[in-house]
Here is the input.
Amino acid sequence: MKPGMIIFLVILAVLVIAFVVLYFVGKKAQKKQAEQQEMLQANKQTVSMLIIDKKRMKIKDSGLPQMVIDQTPKLMRNSKLPIIKAKVGPQVMSLISDEKIFDNVPVKKEVKAVVSGIYVLDVKGLHGRTEAAPAKKKGIFKRALEAAQEKAGAKPLK
Here is the structure.
C-alpha cells in the first residue's frame, strides 16, 4: 500500500474512534442533565421577592455562599453566571438565574419567582407588567447593510 493511503486510513480510524467516544460521553451528559432538571422541578417553590440587581459575574465575585463556590468544578469558577441579587423576606440573597429568563427579569420590581434552592427557574410580575428586554442596538455592519438594501430598493432582512 502507498504511504498516503495508510495515513488516510489511520486518520479515518482516529476520527471514527473520536466520534464514538463523543457520542457516548454526550449521551451520559444528556442523561445527567435530565436527572438534574427532574430534581429542580421536584424541589421548586414559589416565592415573592424584590429584585435589587442582576449581573453576569464570576462565581468568585458573586456573593454566593462559600460552600457553593467550593462545590463548583475548577473550570466553572472562572466563567460568568447570571446572578440576581434579591430581597426575599427580610434578607438579601444572591441567586443564580436560569439563562433563558435572565434577560426578562425586571430590576427594582417585586416579582413572584419559582425557585429551587439558590436557582431561579421562572419569574412572573407581581405588581404591574414586566417589561420585555430592550431591543439590542444594531452594529455598524448591520446598519450599513440595511442602508445599502434600502437604497437598492430591497426589503430589509430581519
About this structure: Residues 44-158 form a domain with the OB fold (Dihydrolipoamide Acetyltransferase, E2P) fold (CATH 2.40.50). The chain has a mean pLDDT of 87. The longest strand covers residues 45-58.
